[in-house]
Each structure stands twice: as structure tokens, then as C-alpha cells.
Amino acid sequence: MSKSNNVYKDAFNRCLRLLDENKSLPSEPELGTLLGVSRTTVRSILARMEETGLIDWNKRNKTVLRAPRPEDFFPEEETDSLAEIIERSFMRRLLAEGAEAGMQINELELAREIGVGTTSVREFLIRFSRFGLIEKRRNSHWVLKGFTRAFALELTEIREMFELRSAAAFAALPEDSAVWVDLDMLEVQHRQLASEIATRFNEFSELDERFHRLIHRASHNRFIVDFYDVIAMIFHYHYQWNKAEERQRNEVAVQEHLAYIAALKSRDPVKVDAACRKHLKSARQTLLTSIPEGRQAQPA
Amino acid sequence: MSKSNNVYKDAFNRCLRLLDENKSLPSEPELGTLLGVSRTTVRSILARMEETGLIDWNKRNKTVLRAPRPEDFFPEEETDSLAEIIERSFMRRLLAEGAEAGMQINELELAREIGVGTTSVREFLIRFSRFGLIEKRRNSHWVLKGFTRAFALELTEIREMFELRSAAAFAALPEDSAVWVDLDMLEVQHRQLASEIATRFNEFSELDERFHRLIHRASHNRFIVDFYDVIAMIFHYHYQWNKAEERQRNEVAVQEHLAYIAALKSRDPVKVDAACRKHLKSARQTLLTSIPEGRQAQPA
DNA sequence: GTAATGTCTTTTATCGTGAAAAAACATTTT
DNA sequence: AAAATGTTTTTTCACGATAAAAGACATTAC
């Protein structure tokens, strides 16, 4: 089957949304940057848009003929990359009951179950291994270490070390640094979310990630910045399948963020340290209480 | 060409050395654990040993007929795994002059140059990416970030954070912990090396790694333990191609280790912190001075 | 002459395939 | 009956092949 054309389909869908109001499309290279794809893909998109009567395309002229209809879009599930599909499948298994530590992971079985080639599964597992949840036995199978209490504790230990350092670095940044503008914007968005928390609490995750990534970036250390990928991954999947108390949890977190932001703006290292510690402590608590007690590592 | 039988060849060579004095070989499963391979491979080894007249093999009886001769061994270069071959080739390029930051990495070209399939190169690059020296552009090439001064500084920053914490944890370990025995053994080996430093200075690398890994393990944190892989990799290759002042450097380091060990054994947190800091500082200095000034990151 | 379009080439992503190695099952030996 | 050997099955590792996507080069338009 070689390669799916999900890049094209996803870009096509995004391009449809772009179309809406404008009465004419920009040049091919411009569209390419806008959609984050190559000109080759842009041209495939334009070709199809012409075919389906969405635009009239003649060299530089790309006139929009009609607004896109629901049936113009490619189905959502066809726009995911293989890596995303495999990741979702794998995480579902991992966080499901019965995924005990010590369990073996079988590439071939996974590949068959998901309906993809072994190569893609292998590559996924290699990429995934840096999250510390699986381990390779040379020339043999992978071993699941499990999403255990120990894992959560080790993860949060590093997170706290890294974030305290990043927050301190952040506060020490010069007045004219661009980060203060970003921080102001995030503050506004936090306030808006706080005022409508009852209905929009599920939008917090995304804001949370942007906020913490901004702080981590102040460390100017690639290992610290990259480590946030591990945290983001865990939070993303863990909370996606664990909605208990979500509203309450996020409401508290938003307030902690606002206090944290205020501390950063004060640029007082002591206040920053205190606000950061407080938020991290409650984040750890939340993560820990959501791990079922039964999920313990098996003796090796 | 599918898969090379380097596992068999390497195990065969190691088995030859085992053969030497003993007049009879253990059971197949026992040999398997000894050599770290499956019984299937053990049987291939035994089969060849019988063929070449090294042993007489009849079921449980594996009598050694003669001592192995040099020509019995498989050539060294045939015992390396593909991953090792690719890693070496890649690192040679990376540390060679002209490997500037920002440079593109081409999977196909690398594969052709090394003479292996693209899949193996891809998998290597994915595994290697966690070292923070390369980065993937989605659906496109890899970008070399380069072994720059910035990289060395970011690496050592994390190393120092992690090792200070691990050393503190180490010193706090109970008297009856097994680590104290390991530490005593390492101390003896350090003293031996110190007394013969003139001739054996090149054996330090290996001792260095074992010492630091022992300390890091005391953190009981997989992220800290795993991070030492990054450090070990950098040190391994960097010093392999940079022998300037090696003897002098190692002589100093051995003494610092001995002081560090003494501090750990005193179990006094203040002394431990001081000894650890001192050693890490000089390690960082050594690494930094060995990076050519010209090697700077290019603006993006 | 710069920036677009048109065309051609190269590289990446993915699969199926086959040998090496591991693992599972069956049989024998002590 | 426990542990070894003998046999068969399954899985991992690595390759070449192929379509998707990116990139490079040539040509045209403003």
C-alpha cells in the first residue's frame, strides 16, 4: 500500500476553510507556507478544487466559485498520519486495565492488530521509548514498564527540577524580551477562561501546555525543552481517559497559573519560586491520585 | 541481503574464548545465558565447532578436542551489529570538520554511503535524536544541530543538576546498601589505576563511566539514569577522536574521583556536594576547551 | 529581473518479503 | 519429574520496491 496521502487530504481540508470568504487564492508558494506543505501538494489540492468546481484555476488566477460544502471535506479519519494512528492505538492499550508492568510487547501482533506494517510500529516504539514507559531487549521483544506510581513520581521529580529552574530564568529575562508580551497574552486568555470556566473548562489543557512550554523555553536548554514532550504526552492521554473532577481540577489550576503569572511579572525570585512550587505540588497530587492503586510494578 | 548473522559470529568468538581451558562445555541453556543468546544460536555455534573439529558433540557430551587457533575466529568487523556500524559512520561525519550546524541530513545518501538499507538508517536517526544533536522536519529531512559550545553547555547543565542530586541521594543510602560494596571496589580500582597511570591512563574512560553510572543509579529515577547515556555517548566519541592531553586529563580526574569517593563515604552532604561540584566543574572545563572555537551554530 | 508556474528528479514513508534469532512445543535422558 | 536435547513456530531485523511528498530545475509571466 506504500504511503497514504493523508498530508494532502489534511492540507486540502485546511485549505477549504481558508477558501470561505476570500474571492481569490494566493500564489502556490504562498499557499505552501500557509499550509505547511510543498508546492507539489498545493498543486494536487488546487487540481482537485478545480475538478470539484470549487475554484476556477488558470495559472495565477485562482478564483473561488463557491463556498465549500460538508461533502467537499475528506473524512477526518483519513487525515491522520500513521504515526498518530499507531500512537492512539498503543496508548489505549497502555492505559487500559490489564496493561501490567513487565508485560511483553510484540511488534508483529501490534502491527497486525492496527493493520499497518511492522516497520511503522518499530519506528513508533523506538520514538516512544524515550518516554521511559517501555524498554527494548536486544534482538528480542519490548518490555512494558507500565504507567505506575513510580513512573509518575520520577516524572514529576524531573519536571519540578526543570520548571523551577526555568521559572527562575524566566523572571531574570530583560524587560524588553519578547516573552513578556507572550506572558501578557496568556494572562488575558487565562482570565477569559476563568470567567467562563463553567462551560469552557475543557479548553484548559491546551492553554496549560502553551503556558508551561513558554516557561520551559526560558531555560534555553534543549534537554529541558524536549522533556516537556514527555509531560505533555502523559497529560494528554492520561486526562483524555480520566475525566474525574475535570472541571474542579482545571478551575484550581487556572487560579494557580494566574498567581504564577503574577509572581513572574513581579520578577521577585522568592515569589516565583513559591508560586511555581505551589502549582507543581498540586499538579503532582492530581496526577498521583488519578493512578489506580492496583497499578504496581511487578517484581522483575 | 536480509539480516546478517553477527549475533551468531560474535557469540561464536566469545564461546571460543570460553573453550580454552575447560575440557567440556555446559548444557545448551547454560551456554545460552552465559553468552546472552538463545538456544537456537548456541546450537549453530556448537554445530560449527563440531564441524571445524574443535569439539566432539554428542547430545549432552561436548568434549573439547583442541584449543582454538586464530583462524577459528570470525573477523572482528563481521561481529558488529548494523546499528553499531551506522553509529560509527555517522559519528565520524558528525565530529569531522565541516559538519556545521544547520546542515541537512539525507537518509538515502547516508544509507548509500554506508552501504545499508534506508530503514536501518532511519531507525538509527530516530534513536539518535534523543541525544539532542539532530532534529526531524516532518515529512522531510533531518537537520544537524551540531556539536557546538551551546550543546556542551546545555548538556553539562543537566548533568550537574542530575549528578548533584544523585550524589546526595547516594550519601543518604543506608549503611547496609549494596552500593557501598560497589563503591569500595571502584575505589580499589581507582587506586590501582592511579599507581600505574603512566601506562594505563587509557583505561580511565571505562572506569569513569562505571563510577558515574553507580552514582546516578542512586537517584532511582529512570530519566536521570537514562540521561547518562547521552553523556556517555558524547564522551565516548568525543575523546576517541580527541586525544590531546589525555594522560594529564585522566590523572587529574582519577584524583578527583578518589576525593569524591572519600566524600561519599564520609556521608557528609556538604563534603559530597563540594567534591561533586569540583569534579563536574573540571569535567565541564575539559569538554569546553576541546571544542574548536569555529564550531558555532549558524543563524537559522 | 524577480517571482510565479510548469516539469522533472530525489527523498521520504510504508509495505511485503526472507533470513537470523528467539521462543514454544515435543521428546528424550538422567 | 526435572532438565536436557530435538523440532517447529513465531518474531525480529533488514532489504528492495513503490507511491506520496518534497525539492530542484526550466520556463514563462509580470
UniProtKB/TrEMBL annotation, chains A, B:
Keywords, in A-Z order: DNA-binding, Transcription, Transcription regulation
Pfam families with a match to the protein in the record: FCD, GntR
Domain of life: Bacteria
InterPro entries, per database record: GntR_C, TF_FadR/GntR_C, Tscrpt_reg_HTH_GntR, WH-like_DNA-bd_sf, WH_DNA-bd_sf
Keyword DNA-binding carried by entry: yes
Keyword Oxidoreductase applies: no
SUPFAM superfamilies cross-referenced by the UniProt entry: GntR ligand-binding domain-like, Winged helix' DNA-binding domain
Name assigned to this protein: GntR family transcriptional regulator
